[in-house]
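Supplementary Note 3. Input sequence used for the single-chain structure prediction.
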Amino acid sequence: MTESGKLLNLVRELVALPAESEWLEFKHNNADPADIGEYISALSNSAVLHKKQCAYIVWGIADRTHEVIGTSFRPRQTKVGNEELENWLVTQLDPRIDVRIREGDFEGTPIVLFEIQSAFGRPVRFKGVEYVRVGTYKKRLHDHPEKERLLWRIFEQTPFEKGIAKKNAAADEVLDLLDYPNYFRLAQAPLPENREAILERLTSERVIARVAGDGYDISNIGATLFARSLKEFDRLARKTLRIVVYSGDNRVKAVKEQERTAGYGVDFEEAIRYLNDQLPRNEQIGQALRREVPAYPEIAVRELVANALIHQDFSIVGAGPMVEIFSDRMEISNPGQPLIDTRRFIDEPPRSRNETLASLMRRLNICEERGSGIDKVIFSVELFQLPAPDFRVAGDGTVAVLYSPRQFAQMGRQERMRACYQHACIQYVSGKRMSNASLRKRLGITDANYPLASRIIRDTIEEDLLKAHGEGSGAKKKATYVPYWA
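The predicted structure, written as discrete structure tokens, is reproduced below.
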């Protein structure tokens, strides 16, 4: 069906409703930008209370009679100052939810429809204020504490994975949209010979859910992992994995960019192969042969990309996981701040916003068991004698940085302390203790330069990242050290 046909069918459904609701607003020509923004906030929040995936504003419909009367409102030609209305609205919303603008004709009469994503994770604000619908009236959420409490309770009980990526799809459409052969391959299960058995297995896995009639809802987790193309799902279209290669150590010139559009589960292995092919390689000289080895440990790349996919905040619109390759480093980022301190990534079990997604990816052997991934990253980085990776928060996102080989003399004070702290952590979780000798081995410092290792340890202690441990802590040669949290 064409986009215009889908718009007509949707408007017919909305007009056929007995009255406006807390998730539906009809308008004629009222197009005040601030008023529209407040309505978007109110309708998005109210859609959650009514268990709706979307809310709607329709211009060109009489609110009392539902008669199609047309509208002179042209949102894509409307500006706020010098800024386009659509872009202005999105920048005033927090979080930035998806607002789709559709314009068309209903039986020869011009209409406009705003399809508004329901709030997820927290109430939507417009210019710092949260709104909600009370009946057909737009009110401040703060003035209605009973609705505010209910809204937060729903947020706490509704993880992303339980959301719907596509509603009421026909059986054939489900099989067209989802790469079900690869699901069975990953699950190490034989592919059933008939359609009903395939649909039954996908239903038992909660990839899809049967609805009234012969339709199926495709879940967010099903589409995220097994979509043939995430672009076919409006709410997930911007969650594709992007891989960008730059010519230098900054973002001035990108020489290659690829967007991985398939679901994370079915595409993960191929994405990692492609990524490893883009990474620089170093020549290693053995006793008799020269060979090229990857500049970064493959296990570290794999685990950090998997983490970016799993731990992202899907409620942040317009941003997705990304891998950027520079001449001296690679950065793996995802939308959403981490739920634990970045310094505790090594020892604490990960907390994920998307636990069902993480569990299914582990079961399909796409990522490591809980809590072991970052340990393997640090182990492999030390084995390759690379600078310590950096885990940091950047705005509303999380970034993990792997650095290319660099001599100890080229490392700055912060890099040396980070390596010292991470080495102490990995020693501790392995049942060992860091010493001056183990740090020298980690950083490639000669035995004669043990005072240099001592200075790094002292600096790290002064930064409250490290502390002396137990017996021998007073004798420098025998002293051992543990992370600050041990």
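The two ends are 61 Å apart (CA to CA). Residues 164 and 219 are 4 Å apart (CA to CA).
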